[in-house]
From TrEMBL:
It is found in: Cell outer membrane. This is TonB-dependent receptor. Belongs to the TonB-dependent receptor family. It is a multi-pass membrane protein. GO terms for cellular component: cell outer membrane. Residues 261-338 form the TonB-dependent receptor plug domain. GO terms for molecular function: siderophore uptake transmembrane transporter activity. It comes from Sediminicola luteus. Residues 417-866 form the TonB-dependent receptor-like beta-barrel domain. Pfam families: CarbopepD_reg_2, Plug, TonB_dep_Rec_b-barrel. InterPro entries: Beta-barrel_TonB (IPR000531), Beta-barrel_TonB_sf (IPR036942), CarboxyPept-like_regulatory (IPR008969), Plug_dom (IPR012910), Plug_dom_sf (IPR037066), TonB-dep_rcpt-like (IPR039426). It comes from the Bacteria. GO terms for biological process: siderophore transmembrane transport.
């Protein structure tokens, strides 16, 4: 026995715990019993004055999972996670008898120890045991937060969308994009499963004593990859509280035949019910009956105004660098705002931090390459991608004589740098640029471009509180360079630029409440357009429309509220505010009269940054989910939103020459409301996913134009703009097969999109002030996407698309006035072009799947519009010999074959 100790007076600076224990044994005669492996590499700083042994040990092991037990005054037994109980809590045997289950963790007057059913445990397969937390006498039975990060054990990359679940409990979670997770579990023993695409199915035993961190490094696998990832999404389909959400991984587009063999997640999106466009060659999307300008398209948090190339045939996103897209068309989370219909949240991959990787393709129209470059092992990486086209040949096969003599080209580039400072801080920076040039006629060269910069900082305050700072800047430009025969050469252009700061925070309060809150501020700079003479001989008069500036901001908060295991709500509130800023001159008109030069009453000038007009209002975001059965749920949602920026177009479909206009004193912001209700069911152990969802939307102050309006370079554009009401409603059905040789989905949507422009003045009234169909109203929309895996290397894929013809305005007669003939047109959008039908097929041929190969490759052979159906894009009318004749224009009236070669290394 050592000497008796009245107190311990010691000071250690960054000293090994093992060294401290050895010093205590030598100085005071204590004897410690422990496994040295538990303390390897652990150092602490501690200073005490006349401390008792128990006080000293409490401080020494406060940040570890170790407990201690005093055998006598001088013998110390160290325990990992556990506590030595000298007596059982009061009432322990009574409660144990009432449960009839020796595995039950009992909460009596104090904490009960964890017991194991050794007989049952020995009958199960051998599992590795992992422990979380430190057992304490007063920490209760939970629930406790188990969290951490899961990485690929070979590459060190985080594993996203991995399902981690406790078997037999219904407790599960899915890792985020950076591999982190959080799971609530009571004290006790669990059999855990980890499932993800490309990762071996992993099982282990987990003993939970208290909240703590569990990081995992898992092994890669090439077995049952598709089954695992699709099962995770099927689970989310039923469990997610939000209505009207879809996720598309970039890899999903690999086995879907698209025009000219290009992988395109945005085109894949249009095969889902509720998302469509006006037709082949049309840019933009119409989501649940909304206009194309009502979609917020984000790339790494920055806005992309035109995400397409080549008249809408290709996405302006590199498929090799794109991780995926989250689509919100029903319940939009409160952190998103500024658009009425939907959010497309597109993310770029983080580069590999451990080895050089790449992917390239050569196709009929484009070539593409992407490289992942490690900058510093486990710390920093860079991913870069570039794509260009040699697409002029495709114009030669288009069924349009004018287009056959045209030319077009495009390219895009993207780079993303990721730097992991430590486990609590990560920086990401993205830069993106795309450029299109095309000439429809010999004398005009059109061009448009997107530019985007994005910087984000992810940081973790503690295990429950995280934040993300975004700073983005994006710009969209359009221009026309005209070089004609006469002295009318000119250069025309406009651009829209926006800069945004956003601070988004997440706080996990407890298992029932998880908060998302933050602040956002955005500055708009719009150059509505200008025209200048090109060359010294041009007689064009310069004209420049005054620039517009505005600021848009928002405060928001959301709460995921778990009322019970069956009932959960997402409760969100966003308050947005907007100010139209000077330097500007606003025009005032006589109230209650149409806007025209005749009703103009005055003008007011505002200095730079002076507020000329402001708007604000609350936006409610509420959704709920109720489990009828574990694989059957019902969801409902209500959503409101303001939109302060408008696209101005008097074309049938969206086009690059559409301009953008900010809300001011004459053009009010749009306001939308949406109600949604749906039923979601999984069948055959998540092999099949079934959903049926209905919605009803109303909107105010949507824009349209007077007949014959001129919107390009119009100094008094408000005199041409009409604002009215809209409504849309529909039912969406989706059946998806997630596993097996045959997989894919069948979608159908019945929907209507209507608008009304009414006024006591005929000049501001359309179709007698009654509701009429929008240009993109397609009541029936059916799509079938299927992929059949013949072998591990060969697969067949197909698309089948059917849509109702969109509305058009036809001439219905003619009349003579003042010795001149005039055409009499029907009500706007009273007729429809023929229905649209298209069938595509594809063959995918992969190389062998040996792991130790320098490269992996595959071929894609596809035929777009295999039936050669002459689907009309538009109908137009000309007068020939005094007669009005109708013609229809098609984009692809013949089958379009393509072949592409892809390689990974």
């Amino acid at each position: 026995m050592g000497q008796q100790v009245n107190g311990i007076t010691k000071k250690y600076e960054n000293t090994s715990i093992i060294t401290i224990i050895e010093d205590l044994e030598e100085t005071y005669g204590y004897r410690f019993y422990f496994n040295p492996v538990w303390l390897e590499g652990r150092k602490v700083s501690i200073e005490t004055t006349n401390a008792s042994l128990t006080d000293f040990l409490e401080r020494l092991f406060s940040n570890t999972e170790l407990n201690y037990y005093l055998q006598d005054a001088n013998q110390v037994i160290l325990l990992r996670n556990n506590i030595v109980y000298t007596e059982l809590p009061n009432g322990f045997f009574k409660e144990l008898q009432s449960t009839g289950n020796s595995n039950t963790v009992v909460k009596a007057e104090s904490v009960a120890p964890i017991f194991y059913d050794f007989e049952n445990t020995q009958q199960t397969e051998s599992l590795e045991t992992m422990r979380v937390g430190k057992s304490k006498a007063d920490n209760g039975n939970g629930p406790f937060t188990v969290q951490g990060k899961i990485i690929n054990g070979k590459t060190g990359e985080p594993i996203a969308d991995l399902v981690l679940r406790a078997k037999g409990t219904g407790k599960r979670t899915i890792t985020s994009g950076n591999g982190t997770y959080s799971l609530l579990l009571n004290k006790g023993t669990y059999e855990m499963e980890a499932l993800a695409m490309g990762i071996q199915d992993t099982k282990f035993r987990l003993i939970v004593y208290d909240s703590g961190v569990l990081d995992l490094a898992l092994n890669e696998s090439l077995e049952q990859l598709d089954e695992v990832i699709l099962e995770a999404e099927a689970i989310k389909n039923v469990e997610d509280v939000n209505t009207g959400t879809n996720q598309i991984n970039s890899e999903e587009s690999k086995n879907i035949p698209l025009v000219l063999g290009e992988r395109d997640i945005l085109k894949v999106a249009t095969t889902l019910p509720g998302i469509s466009n006006a037709g082949e060659g049309a840019s933009g999307f119409n989501v649940r009956g909304g206009k194309t300008d009502q979609n917020l398209i984000l790339l790494d948090d920055g806005v992309v105004y035109n995400p397409t190339h080549f008249f809408g045939f290709f996405q302006a996103l590199n498929p090799f660098t794109t991780e995926g897209v989250d689509i919100y068309k029903g319940s939009i989370p409160p952190q998103f705002g500024g658009r009425l219909s939907s959010v497309f949240d597109i993310t770029t991959k983080d580069g590999n931090m451990n080895e050089l990787k790449g992917e390239a393709s050569i196709g009929a129209v484009t070539s593409n390459i992407a490289l992942e470059v490690p900058i510093k092992k486990d710390k920093a990486s860079l991913i870069v991608g570039g794509r260009t086209t040699y697409s002029d040949w495709i114009l030669k096969v288009v069924d349009d004589e004018q287009l056959k003599n045209s030319e077009a080209s495009f390219y895009d580039m993207i780079a993303k740098y990721t730097h992991k400072i430590n486990d609590n801080h990560t920086l990401r920076g993205s830069a993106y640029y795309s450029k299109d040039k095309f000439s429809i006629t010999n004398d005009s060269l059109y061009n448009y471009s997107n530019r985007l910069f994005s910087l984000s900082w992810d940081h973790k305050f503690n295990e429950k509180h995280t934040g993300k700072v975004h700073v983005t800047n994006s710009q969209y430009q359009f221009g026309i360079d005209y070089d004609g025969q006469a002295n009318t050469d000119f250069n025309l252009g406009y651009d829209v630029t926006e800069t945004e700061f956003k601070y988004d925070l997440n706080y996990f309060h407890n298992k029932d409440h998880s908060f998302n809150y933050g602040i956002a501020a955005k500055l708009y700079d719009i150059n509505p357009g200008g025209i200048d003479p090109a060359g010294n001989e041009s007689q064009v008069t310069p004209l420049h429309i005054p620039k517009e500036r505005a600021i848009e901001g928002a405060l928001y908060i959301g709460d995921t509220y778990n009322v019970s295991p069956k009932l959960s709500f997402n409760l969100g509130l966003r308050y947005s505010f907007y100010a139209f800023l000077g330097e500007t001159t606003t025009r005032e008109y006589a109230p209650g009269l149409p806007l025209s030069d005749a009703t103009l009453t005055g003008e007011t000038e505002y200095d730079k940054n002076e507020v000329a007009q402001s708007y604000n209002g609350p936006e409610v975001r509420v959704s709920g989910r109720y489990f009828i059965q574990p694989d059957l749920s019902i969801k409902a949602g209500f959503n409101t939103a303001y939109q302060y920026i408008h696209s101005l177009s008097n074309n049938t479909t969206v086009s690059p020459i559409d301009t953008w206009k900010l809300s001011d004193n004459n053009i009010e912001p749009q306001l939308g409301y949406q109600y949604s209700l749906g039923v979601y069911k999984n069948l055959k152990e998540n092999e099949y996913e079934l959903s049926l969802e209905g919605y009803y939307k109303t909107s105010e102050n949507i824009t349209d134009f007077k007949t014959g309006a001129n919107i390009l370079l119009n100094e008094t554009i408000e005199q041409e703009v009409l604002q009215g009401d809209g409504k849309a409603y529909g039912v969406e059905f989706l059946l998806r097969k997630n596993r097996g040789r045959l997989n894919g989905w069948l979608g159908y949507a019945y929907s209507r999109s209507l608008q009304k422009f009414d006024s006591e003045f005929s000049v501001e009234r359309i179709n007698n002030g009654e509701f009429f169909a929008t240009n993109y109203d397609k009541p029936h929309d059916f799509s079938l996407v299927a992929n059949y895996k013949v072998t591990n290397r060969y697969s067949l894929s197909t698309n089948l698309i059917y849509q109702s013809g969109r509305p058009v305005t036809y001439p219905v007669g003619s009349y003579r006035f003042n010795n001149a003939d005039y055409v009499l047109y029907s009500n706007r959008n009273e007729f429809r072009i023929p229905n649209y039908f298209r069938w595509d097929i594809g063959l995918n041929i992969e190389g062998n799947h040996r792991i130790k190969k320098l490269t992996h490759s595959f071929w894609t052979i596809s035929v777009y519009n295999v039936l050669g159906r002459n689907n009309p894009y538009s109908v137009f009318f000309v007068t020939e010999d005094g007669e009005i004749k109708a013609y229809q224009s098609s984009i692809f009236a013949i089958p379009v074959p393509s072949i592409s070669y892809n390689i990974k290394f």
